[in-house]
Amino acid sequence: PVLLSAVVYALVGAVASVAWAGGGAAAADLAKLRGSRAAPLLVLSVSCYVVAPYFYFRALKVLPLSQVAILQTLMGVFTLLAGVACGAESFSPLRAGGALLLVTATALVTAGSESRRYSRTFGLLIFAAAFYAAAALADQRLVSSIGLSPACVLTAAFLPPGLLLAAARLARGEASRPALRRALTTRTVYFNAATLGVAYTAVYLSYAAGASASGVTLILAAEVVGVVVGAALFLGERDRLPLRLVSGALAALGVYLVR
């Protein structure tokens, strides 16, 4: 799964780099990247996009998709709390209530999973959510405050992490070159790359229009109920389904309040 994510990231970044180079904003973006404020944010963003997918896809190998979707809503909570801490986000009792509902939803979905393997995997997913939250805050600042073009940030956020993840897996012998060739000829990989590229283009355009990082992150997390229902219908994830549905509904309500 990590190799597939690396290929998807590299494909998205490669297409974005072509759009960036041909879009006329490259020279202005490169001038802004030389500024002292842009470099640390860019390094933070790229680093988080290298680490977060590794944790996320390792967790996806063990946990059902519906549990992963519910736990990933914590990304919105982390983004909000970090944004409040650095003065980039506002806080209110309503948003606090929404954050509490999200934490409750994740507590419910992890309840009863006493297996050490599951517990360790929950931890990996929480780490992934935290790193994705940090990346969202860095990306929002790069687009809205520094003024980089969405294509530039999309290139930086996906191409280097994709290449680094693929190189690391191949160097450690955890993936073979035939496996890489199979990944490059799988239609699902290109479908995932297309949907991810469109989604993140919309995210960065939202940042350019003034949207907050937590608001965008939580809108993306609103898919949770649909994922839980879809996983039950199409993937056969019906174990403890009532609890997952309740958790998904609580998470969706929490997303609505926090946004």
Structural class: mainly alpha
- Taken from the alpha-carbon principal axes, the silhouette is globular
Main β sheet profile: none
Average pLDDT, rounded to a whole number, is 81
**Approximate helicity band:** over 70%
- Count the E strands: 0
Q: From the alpha-carbon coordinates, what is the Rg to the nearest angstrom?
A: 18 Å
Question: End-to-end span in angstroms?
Answer: 31 Å
Beta-strand residue percentage: under 5%
**Which regions have little confidence, pLDDT < 50, spanning 5+ residues?**
none
**Element-by-element helix/strand order:** HHHHHHHHHHHHH
Tally of DSSP helical segments:
13
Task: Describe it.
With 259 residues, this protein is an all-alpha fold. Helix content is 81%, strand content 0%. The radius of gyration is 18 Å and the shape is globular. The protein has 13 helices and no strands.
Task: Describe, in short, the structure shown.
By secondary structure, the protein is mainly α.
Keywords:
259 residues, globular, 13 helices, mainly alpha
